[in-house]
């Protein structure tokens, strides 16, 4: 299969620092398409567009020039009998559509907002219409319906219908960037990630994308802040520890958005990011307990607060194990099962809920009491997840359907 891009109609706009042409090529690589080549067809354009190199694409990128209608130029690309995915250089396409179209049989097209992407079989070359635009040339092809598209995104814990946009001016670019930013938020997450941090994340992601900052760089800074928060809290420097902790919490959203919006996520980045999310919270709790007891040297097992920290660790591990049971069964998170589970995810015992609660309590002089309440809230969270998992597996006995 080939990817054919009509670059006679090209946009000068850059979405998160990338041209539409670059986004097409990176999206194809991101979806691991088995392409034989990428054809950038510039028609009779006076100048060749800047064509980015993509060494991990696995196929050559070829710029071709020639006269004729879109149908004529497509016909030449189809002459060797190989199917292709066709789009144009003013279209921003949902990356999932590339994989979806590549795995289909027969010609079909997805259309939205004056933008189009299609799969075209060689047998349909003679049926292409002589028209000035790709959309008009393939207007007779069957439509890809939203109801036929697998919209559930496991990483985002939500269903997301496919999207297509034509990006031809600054207003459209700004609108699309906003849409892409919000579409990359998870369907079930905590209150602060969903409602408090987004303005800070939005302020950072577009400029970092334009500067081509790799998300792993953001993740490494996040790791440093995470580690610094522990000894600072244990030394009683709680406000400095909080500053590091909140910095990490915000950057934890930044690196993920940056990776998905620029197609720069990587295996090592996922390990660093998600591994950090899972491992670090108990260390923060032990740091808080040590700081409230006067430092590591004054910590002893006889101290109720230190015992509470160990209980917190045990509950945290148990909670993660319970959630792993549902994931092993349904290949997705428990909080995607039903709207009630997504709602509960907003407030359950997690870093971004416990941290603000502890901060406010520390400022008010009730840090020790707050610590015990956090442990109790973790116990309640663990109990809910255990009972809910038992109910789903023993009573419902059926897979969860995709829900936002």
Averaging pLDDT over every residue, what do you get?
91
The H/E string reads: EEEHEEHEEHEEHEEEHHHHHHHHHH
Question: Spatial order of the strands in the main sheet?
Answer: 5-4-1-6-9-8
Number of strands: 12
Say what the CATH topology of the largest domain is: Four Helix Bundle (Hemerythrin (Met), subunit A)
Give the CA-based shape.
elongated
Unreliable runs, pLDDT <50, ≥5 residues? Answer: 399-404
In whole angstroms, how far apart are the ends? 33 Å
| Helix residue percentage | 40-55%
Whole-number total of structural domains: 2
Overall structural class, as computed from helix and strand content, comes to alpha/beta
What does the largest sheet look like? Answer: 6 strands, mixed
Commentary on this structure:
The protein is α/β, with parallel strands linked by helices and 404 residues long. It has 2 domains: 165 residues, Spore Coat Polysaccharide Biosynthesis Protein SpsA, Chain A, CATH 3.90.550; 213 residues, Up-down Bundle (Four Helix Bundle (Hemerythrin (Met), subunit A)), CATH 1.20.120. It is built from 14 helices and 12 strands. A 6-stranded mixed β-sheet has the order 5-4-1-6-9-8, with helices on both faces. The protein has a two-stranded antiparallel sheet with strand order 2-3. Strand 2 and strand 3 form a beta hairpin. Helix 11 packs parallel to helix 14. It is elongated. 40% of the residues are buried.
Brief digest:
This protein is an alpha/beta fold and 404 residues long. The chain is 53% helix and 12% strand.
Fill in the keyword field for this structure.
12 strands; elongated; six-stranded mixed β-sheet; 14 helices; disordered C terminus; Four Helix Bundle (Hemerythrin (Met), subunit A); Spore Coat Polysaccharide Biosynthesis Protein SpsA, Chain A; alpha/beta; 404 residues; 2 domains; two-stranded antiparallel sheet
